[in-house]
Amino acid sequence: MVTEAKRQIAFVVDLNKCMGCHTCTIACKTLWTNDKGMDHMWWMKVNTMPGRGYPKDWETMGGGYDGEGNLALGKEPGTEEYGRPMEFNYEEVFFGGNGHKAHLAPQESPGWGPNWDEDIATGEYPNSYFFYMPRLCNHCGHPACAEACPQKAIAKREEDGVVLVVDESACATCSDPLCMKGCPYKEVYRNPVRSAAQKCNGCLPRMEREVAPACVRQCPGRCIWVGFLNDAESPVYKLVKEWKVALPLHPEFGTRPHVYYVPPLASPRLDAEGNVDSSQPRIPMDYLRGLFGPEVDGAVGRLQEEIEKKRNKQDSPIMDVLIVRKWQELLGPFEKDPSEVQ
């Protein structure tokens, strides 16, 4: 039985503001997964959408729950989906005297890797499109990873809803990583050196000191909020619960994820003569429905209405929150400066 949280931590990501800079990715990588056996772990990553993502084709690997609420195990990602860590020809380029001839490149192709399909668009010219999607553990309300684990090594904290690996030592006796098969978002990794499952911890050591998660605080685009869904005054609550413009990714997986996305609004389509064609959106709504479910139609409509209000110099509380004039508005209750916390 998975513990129900008294209050639930949640993240909101505005896909209209993410510029694919990967600052959140590197902030997380250097803080949490810069150790042996963690080369393939990207607890935060930014996928180009539409794309195959990381690990490759994670959306089709299964996991989560079926229509009747039963656990449905999927596939465990393998090396071919993660790719091998890339080794570059640094010696040849920087120290071999061939700087004018040699260029920096992997010594061998890893087959796949994070950002492998970065910036690759789809659609037909002149109406091609892509957008960036930061992805991290959803700290689900009904985490399939925890339910699948036979060792009970993964648990959901009652006090804040963070889903944690609470006993790495228990993983040593596990020959079949069901937690990885259970998670439909493939946000659980296995460390082959430590023989342990590892995953995003929500920057819990920071949050316990009232410091925001690294991905939130470091984002230069001001596109990620953190807060508690139970706090009716928080931007997270308003965007998700009140205004309903932030939606979970693949709600059909049944895990009740708590990372929510403001859907992307692309520039208008153009016709063959280069004129604006407003008959249909550049990003097909069918694709967005496949990501966020049928509620995305209403969310996109509300966003467009609020943008029009701003253009007409009318008040729009939704747009005032999404604009984020002061970056501290993103931090929720975690406002302390990490440099001032012991």
Please, could you describe this protein's structure?
The chain is an alpha+beta fold. The chain has a single domain, classed as Alpha-Beta Plaits (2-Layer Sandwich). The protein has eleven helices and twelve strands. The strands form five sheets. The chain has a four-stranded mixed beta sheet with strand order 8-1-10-9. It has a two-stranded antiparallel sheet with strand order 2-3. A hairpin with a 4-residue loop joins strand 6 and strand 7 (196-199). The mean pLDDT is 95.
What is this entry, summarized?
This protein is of the alpha+beta class and 342 residues long. The protein contains 11 helices and 12 strands.
Separation, N- and C-terminal Cα atoms? 36 Å
Q: Describe the sheet with the most strands.
A: 4 strands, mixed
Indicate the CATH class. Alpha Beta
Global outline: globular
Helicity, in percent? 10-25%
Strand order of the largest sheet: 8-1-10-9
Low-confidence stretches: none
Topology order in helix (H) and strand (E) letters: EHEHHEHEEHEEHHEHEEEEHHH
Average pLDDT metric: 95
Contiguous helical run count? 11
Write the layout of secondary structure elements.
Layout: E1 9-14, H1 23-32, E2 45-49, H2 79-82, H3 90-95, E3 131-135, H4 144-148, E4 154-156, E5 163-165, H5 178-182, E6 188-191, E7 196-199, H6 204-207, H7 214-218, E8 224-228, H8 235-242, E9 247-248, E10 259-262, E11 269-270, E12 276-277, H9 285-292, H10 296-311, H11 317-323
Parallel strand pairs: 1-10
Antiparallel strand pairs: 1-8, 2-3, 4-5, 6-7, 9-10, 11-12
